[in-house]
Amino acid sequence: MILVTGGAGFIGSNFVLDWCAQNNEAVINLDKLTYAGNLENLATLKDNPRHIFTHGDIGDTPLVSKLLAEHRPRAIVNFAAESHVDRSIHGPEDFIQTNIVSTFHLLEAVRAYWLALDAAEKSAFRFLHVSTDEVYGSLAKNDPAFSETHRYEPNSPYSASKAASDHLVRAYHHTYGLPVLTTNCSNNYGPYHFPEKLIPLMIVNALAGKPLPVYGDGQQIRDWLYVKDHCSAIRCVLAKGKLGEVYNIGGWNEKANLDIVHTVCGLLDELQPRPNGKSYREQIIFVTDRPGHDRRYAIDARKIERELGWKPVETFETGIRKTIQWYLHNQQWVRHVQSGDYRKWVEKNYAERV
Q1: Is residue 352 part of a domain?
Q2: Domain count of the fold of the chain
Q3: β-strands 254-256, 221-226: how paired?
Q4: Domain containing 246 — which CATH number?
């Protein structure tokens, strides 16, 4: 079996769902269930004996050590992280604690477990750390895309904390021999995405008749990766990745934020038109940009294709249509995740920018 941390969050829950659908290997799912962790994402696995959920923190060394000793996983996939830039600007301490301190505690528990394995188990064991392209900083319009050898230049408390966790994982490989793999992905989108990130926020606000807030001039460029493509890439790296290596995972879909919002509006105009017949574009407003907003991210994903044979299946056009259709068909899920705390945070973040 494998241990997945952060497996009730957006990417983690998609990974667990896909894993259980595609093979018979059991999953231990450890998640702290903060605002972005949601067991409703995993409702279809409620009675599945191959999904073992544990509520807990990766920084809780006795708990992690107990799980490792009891279940003896052959691999760990670490999704657990605080991951929202705006939240890191308002409150960086949680990001330092989870992404750096708790990752350190997790690595220590894993190192002790790995050292006690027999030779065959030790050789087969893997620790896969899931990270982000934001650790590389920002690109100018005509700069080449981020490769795995690009210098780290994080610009937000979030990306700085993830960069630190990447360095810790690397150090545990080079110092202790821990068999690690690291992936750095571009912006994910798809089902179960918590509606504070760009695409789900635009969908949810549009359908509710609320403003669609766009930071600055909306020309910040990101590479967009459909979440199920990301999950398939992680499975590929886990199965075939070279120890100690980093693999960038991208969708080859560079888009400006404003273009994303226009695409969402156009598809909603088609799939669920407004009662007055007007376009959802009328709800777009421009708000003050966030501090230190990186202008462009772009992933060069040639290494993973060249060495491991992986490339994305979805184009942005196919992936965004599937995503919007999922939100239209899962309005109950949307209502449930929009708790009072979530609404307060969105109101605080965007009220300050209008």
Answers
A1: no
A2: 1
A3: antiparallel
A4: 3.40.50.720
The CA distance from 335 to 46, in Å, is 20
Is 180 part of any domain? yes
Query: 42-56: per-residue pLDDT in tens?
Result: 999 999 999 999 999
Task: Quote the CA–CA distance of 107 and 111 in Å, as a whole number.
Answer: 6
Q: Is residue 124 part of a domain?
A: yes
Q: Closest Cα partner for 146 from 295, 296, 255?
A: 296
Q: Identify the weakest region by mean pLDDT among 69-78, 199-208, 342-351.
A: 342-351
User: How does DSSP classify residue 190?
Assistant: S
Q: Which of 31, 134, 166, 223 is catalytic?
A: 134
What is the residue range of 143's domain? 2-189+226-253+292-314
Annotated catalytic residue within 113, 158, 280, 297 = 158
Q: What pLDDT digit, counting tens, does each position of 189-208 carry?
A: 999 998 888 999 999 999 99
- Which of these is catalytic: 31, 82, 86, 133? 133
- Residue 134 annotated to the active site: yes
